[in-house]
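Quick note —
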Amino acid sequence: MGTTGLMADESPTVATSESTREVQYTYVQKQDELEQKLELMEAETKHKEKQWERVIRDLQGELERLRIRVSQLELNEEVYRYDVSEFQTPNCQLPLQLSSQSSNNQARDAAGTSTSKKRMQLHDAIAVGRDALPHEIHLVRNQVNIHLKPPLNDRVPDLLIAEKFVSWMRDRRSSILLAEDDVTINRRPVSPVSLFCANIAENLANRNSGTIALLFCASLSVSTEPTSGPKDMMRVLIAQLLSYSSMKTKLNLEFMTSDRLEVYKNHKLKPLCDLFITLVGQLPAGTDVFCIIDGISWYEQQWLADLKVVANMFLYLMKNRLPKYTATLKVLMTSDKKYGNVAS
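Predicted structure written out below.
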């Protein structure tokens, strides 16, 4: 009787322990489920946060692109303003803001003149032909053959392997590189670096449609002619851009009214700079524009003021280049280290 009573007393305790274990097991299962759900929710939250970050970046990029477009239409006080006596409308604004006579001319041009014809009219206005790049390369090589003797590349490899030059070639951002040297001994019109620049431009020009090469040798445009110097440089660079557009991409030249052509025929530096900005601004994103100017220091004594206008134009373009929305502009200028105004 005593033993039986003891076993009866222990039975509720065993049942209670089993019930407690079941409750604990159920609790652990639910805890695991809740932790899994929490992990999933945290993962989804992080994913959504990344999506929103991308949306915010895209919106910020779009705002930046719109800001650039607006700034391109605004007037730059130092570089991109016509004199009132020449042209009263700010030269960075669209042709729709011209006088009523200009608007009528634009309408007639849009109706009856093809883009190809306008391109040829612009070539005629700036007085530089369609073969501007191969012509410039030929001029450099011809002058090298006349003035220099082999070996010609004893100093050039220093520039080719320089860290700054390699970075300038590879970087996806717009940039300006000034390479100074003293190879222009006795002020000869060309140097081994000149030949190097011509070869680089030719190689870049033979790349795919996403690469544009522009080349100008400053020493070959030094004379007493009023269109020499930086004015000639801008006309040649514009002609090379136009030639590229006729082969690989289409530039919108609807703004090229007869009034505009008359302005460009005068070969004034500021309108030419503005035209260069307009053409570069139309190039699509993913395009690399390599602008190589050899011997820029040749212009420092006679055309320093004009040279500063061109330098400011390039700096303006550097500040308004976004690889996602605009073409990348990479400028290389070579200079005699005896002359330091370009660097300053």
